[in-house]
Amino acid sequence: MSHDDITAHFVDLRRLTNADHILRAAIAAGHYHRLTPEIAMLRERFTELPPWDRVRARTLAFGWSADRAVLVSRSAAVIHGLWTLGLDPLVELAYLTRSAPPRSQRHPYVVYRRSHLHGHEVIDMEGVRVSTVARTLRDVARYHGVIAGVVAIDSARRRFPALPLDGLTMGKFFGIGMVRQALELSTGLAESPLESEATALLKLDAEIGRHSIVPQQEVTIGGRRVRPDNLIDGWLIVEIDGELKYDGHTFGKPTDDVIRAERQREKLLQNAGYVERRYGSRDIRGGLMLADVRRTLRSAPSWAKTTG
User: Fold this and answer.
1) What gap in Å lies between CA 50 and CA 253, rounded to an integer?
2) Is 231 helix (H, G, I), strand (E, B) or coil?
3) Axis-axis angle for helices 193-204, 288-298 (nearest 10)
4) How far apart are CA 114 and CA 103, in angstroms?
């Protein structure tokens, strides 16, 4: 859903007049959900939104409500259409010329960043002020860590291929080491945020990271081209399965067809001498993927393919 599709359903409570008595009654009856103290949305419409669009709706609402503040970090990433590591309901704001309000006046969904933004690092997007893509990537990595930075930078490489990234580490600032590491780990080859997260975790692992990890390397088997999410040491394939893959409609195929195609592909790979492992979000974030990949690499079969 586009920004316009969401904001078209916003009600600016600051603009209500005495003539809006029906709308006021509906709000008082709880038929509208307050995204911010100033912006509301029909509750039924809000609850029908997918989780990521709910986060986007709240982010847009705070952006609309902020007179002098700027959406930054992950909140700016949401507006730019970039991937984020998970769904965080908190909205991140920063001021150009003033400090954050006292804690007693802060909304529970808002985090204020001392980002020291410059004027050229702020743009207007559909009436909402946000940090530029480059500044957003820097802030995501330094405020949320290396993995979150990799996810955002991978997304930016795909969405804005002409975007120069060499300036992300210019100057001196808090968290520059995390930004540098995120840049080094990013490839722009990941096809989903979960895949980006998994690849970064594999590379950062002290044991697994010593092996050759190649994302999205195409291999040809029996005339069929296959491009694994990650190929380790030329024989171990690590595939990442997002939940949307099996929802029956996002990828245009029924769930049974997706599973059947995966089984046929897995058999083809096994017959060619590859070992394939598949992991979902719980496996990745619960540590099972890393533990299983370590164990598999330690017990590499004698027939395993070797690099080259």
Assistant:
1) 20
2) strand
3) 50
4) 14
Residues 6+ apart with CB under 8 A from 83: 77, 151, 152, 154, 155, 192, 193, 196
Q: How confident is the model at residue 100 (pLDDT cuts 50, 70, 90)?
A: confident
pTM of the model: 0.87
The Cα 110–Cα 35 span in angstroms is 12
Predicted pLDDT of residue 272: 79
Q: Which CATH class is domain 193-298?
A: alpha beta
Q: Which tokens is 171 given?
A: 């100057």
Q: Quickly count: other Cβ atoms within 10 Å of residue 203's Cβ.
A: 17
Domain locations along the chain: 1-49, 66-185, 193-298
- List alpha helices for the chain, DSSP H: 3-7, 21-28, 43-48, 51-65, 73-80, 133-144, 146-159, 176-185, 193-204, 255-271, 281-285, 288-298
- 3-class SS at 75? helix
Position 252 scores a pLDDT of 47
User: In whole angstroms, how far apart are CA 181 and each of 67, 139, 200, 251, 301?
Assistant: 35, 14, 10, 33, 33
Residue 105 confidence class, pLDDT cut points 50, 70, 90: confident
Q: Reduce the DSSP state of residue 234 to 3 states and report it.
A: coil
- Dihedral (Cα; 51, 85, 290, 201), 10-degree rounding: 160
**Cα separation of 289 and 282, whole Å?**
9
Q: Which of 229, 236, 300 is nearest to 270 (CA)?
A: 236
pLDDT at site 219: 85
Q: Is the pLDDT of residue 203 over 60?
A: yes
DSSP per-residue letters across 281-306: HHHHHTTHHHHHHHHHHHT--TT---
For the chain, give the percent of residues with pLDDT over 90. Answer: 66
